[in-house]
Design a protein that fits this description.
The complex is a heterodimer of chains A (about 150) and B (about 100).
Chain A: E1 5-13, H1 19-35, E2 39-55, E3 58-70, H2 72-84, E4 90-95, H3 97-120, H4 129-138
Antiparallel strand pairs in A: 1-3, 1-4, 2-3
Chain B: H1 2-24, H2 37-40, H3 51-55, H4 67-70, H5 74-89
The chains are: A alpha+beta (about 150), B mainly alpha (about 100).
Chain lengths: ~150, ~100
């Protein structure tokens, strides 16, 4: 009955956590998702990272990301359970399917309008390999990511 | 004679430049090309996980950089704001720092 949605779950555990404890926690999470007949699409361990601010005594943490497809009821349960675990120092669940769908739509719309413009100018709808090479050579206006983008510095 | 003329002209020109600076200098002081980074680079989804990207809009102090300084368009500033606030919850970006 309930619709399947995509969520991202991130939690932080202390850096001194043993592998077994982390694996144990992950099986717990899996057990919860299975109970709601949800599936874990992807699991990523970001490893040890510095926290942007101190959470209690912690300055570093191990970040773990799960991408989960499941019903909304799963989120409330996950949230409740994760809050109880002492091991987890911070967690967040974010619904991503809507935002990703919007981004996907924007991308296809932009592609369509670009090819339409190109056809109007009498060019093939997709940029050819040669054009792509030329464009990357032209790009010397120093606005790329390597320049950073801090905006004005007042 | 001609030398003298030139020198005189130069002197006057110099003094006028100075006046200009005093008058309307403030506006032309720091003009940057203000374009929305997300529009230019065609970033559709601003993910809260992308710390490298987001951190460039959170200056030292930890506050979200205003649009008038970064030049981000309204749509993307809204998305960026949401991403930053989410990133703060899981300690990827600071709330405050000094």
């Amino acid at each position: 009955m309930s619709a399947v949605r995509q969520y991202e779950l991130i939690y932080i555990v202390p850096p001194e956590t043993t592998e077994e404890a982390l694996a144990e926690l992950q099986t717990q999470v899996e057990a919860i998702t299975q109970r709601f007949s949800a599936t874990i699409e992807k699991t990523e361990n970001w490893g040890r990272r510095k926290l942007a601010y101190e959470i209690g005594p912690h300055r570093d943490g191990i970040y773990v990301l799960h991408v989960i497809n499941g019903p909304a009821a799963l989120v409330t349960e996950l949230d409740r359970r994760l809050r109880v675990f002492d091991l987890v120092i911070r967690h967040i669940v974010v619904r991503v399917d809507l935002d990703l769908a919007i981004a996907e739509r924007a991308r296809t719309r932009r592609k369509a309008s670009m090819s339409a413009r190109r056809v109007r100018r009498g060019l093939p709808p997709e940029p050819t390999e040669q054009e792509r090479i030329r464009r990357s050579e032209d790009d010397d206006d120093m606005d790329g990511p390597e320049m950073g983008f801090r905006g004005g510095d007042r | 004679m001609s030398d003298f003329d030139n020198r005189d002209k130069g002197g006057r020109g110099g003094s006028r430049d100075k006046d200009d600076k005093k008058g309307g200098g403030r506006r032309t002081f720091f003009r940057r090309r203000r374009v929305c980074k997300f529009c230019v680079e065609k970033i559709d989804y601003i993910s809260y996980k992308d710390v490298k990207l987001i951190a460039s809009f959170v200056p030292e102090r930890g506050k979200i950089q205003p649009r008038r300084i970064s030049g981000v368009c309204a749509t993307h500033q809204r998305a960026l704001q949401r991403a930053i606030k989410r990133a703060r919850q899981i300690a990827l970006v600071p709330y405050v720092s000094d």
